[in-house]
UniProtKB/TrEMBL annotation:
The chain crosses the membrane at residues 20-42. This is Pilus assembly protein PilP. PANTHER family: FIMBRIAL ASSEMBLY PROTEIN PILO-LIKE PROTEIN-RELATED (PTHR39555), TYPE IV PILUS INNER MEMBRANE COMPONENT PILO (PTHR39555:SF1). Keywords: Membrane, Transmembrane, Transmembrane helix.
């Protein structure tokens, strides 16, 4: 059995005789076909272009918002830039117009003498040119007690000239400590603007050894230090005793001895025990015994301050309970 063939020409020829619902259905079908074909041919590409334009509009709006924020902060950024440039110019003006290596070496020697530190070696290294300044390093080796070395570094950082400290190495050297460091001083490059050298108003760190323990010494034989204070100059013509040829750090208190109301301190150095009374001298820095107690000895040492005056600094030797 075969199905009848659909004759579209006869169907459309007789469409005028269709009932009204058929005509409405045919009209709707033709309208749908026209809409689909028109959408595919004309509206779909236009819709894609519209989506791209809308995306570009959103991106442009975000870009405009960012630029508006930058424009609003332009005045603040300009002010910050001016402050930074002024600060950079101030730093350049603070640099001296020529090398200050001789002055730095004098400062190192003076600070070492004022703080009871022995300078073992000073070795200036090659000059290092930089874009806006020159850098002159110098290798320094010092020997002394822990608090003396810390006070030396503190005052080195507080100099009016610009000097920085690098590559610090600390190690034990017998009963003392060995400090090796690299100090650097700076001056303007030849193209720098004008002479400087006045230094910057900066707050320097000040080391205060009072109440602090030397971490390289046992607590029982701790040697305490206090900040120096102005004192009268010592009698440089006075003959020096044998005990003044040895550093105070080489002595350790091993006991006391009493004779009536007079007390003596027993100090050991180089395998020998020495007896000292109040008023006796000890150490190379004009140290003089002021108090003798059964557990400690107090003395006062004198140091030049590098400006023609002298500083007095108390010092304490504590009994070594293991002696």
């Amino acid at each position: 059995m075969s199905l009848p063939r659909l004759n579209l020409s006869a169907l459309t020829h007789n469409a005028a005789k269709w009932p009204l619902p058929g005509k409405a259905l045919l009209g709707c079908a033709l309208a749908a076909v026209v809409f689909v074909v028109g959408d595919m041919v004309y509206l779909s590409p236009s819709r894609q272009r519209l989506q791209r334009v809308e995306a570009q509009e959103v991106a442009l709006q975000q870009h405009v918002t960012q630029k508006s924020a930058l424009a609003a902060s332009l005045e603040t950024r300009t002010h910050q830039f001016q402050l930074m440039r002024a600060k950079a110019n101030e730093l350049l003006q603070a640099l001296p117009g020529e090398s200050e290596m001789p002055g730095l070496l004098e400062d190192i020697a003076g600070l070492a003498l004022a703080n009871g530190v022995l300078v073992e070696n000073v070795t200036p290294l090659d000059e290092q040119p930089r874009p806006f300044y020159h850098e002159q390093p110098v290798q320094v080796g010092l020997t002394g007690a822990y608090h003396d070395l810390a006070m030396f570094l503190s005052r080195l950082g507080g100099l009016s000239r610009i000097a920085t400290v690098h590559d610090i190495a600390l190690r034990r050297d017998g009963k003392l400590l060995r400090l090796d460091l690299l100090a650097k001083t700076y001056w303007q490059a030849p193209s720098g603007a004008g002479p400087g050298g006045q230094g910057l108003g900066r707050q320097a760190f000040v080391y205060d050894a009072s109440g602090l323990r030397d971490p390289f010494q046992r607590l029982a034989i701790q040697v305490g230090h206090l900040p120096g204070r102005p004192a009268r100059a010592p009698d440089l013509a006075r003959p020096r005793g044998v005990l003044e040829t040895l550093a105070v750090d080489q002595f350790e208190m091993v006991g006391t001895l009493s004779r009536g109301v007079q007390a003596f301190a027993l100090l050991r150095a180089a395998s020998r025990v020495h007896r000292l009374a109040v008023g006796d001298y000890l150490g190379p820095d004009h140290g003089r015994v002021t108090v003798i107690h059964e557990r400690y000895v107090e003395l006062v040492e004198l140091f030049p301050d590098g400006q023609g005056a002298w500083l007095e600094r108390p010092r304490t030797l504590v009994l070594n309970v293991n002696s």
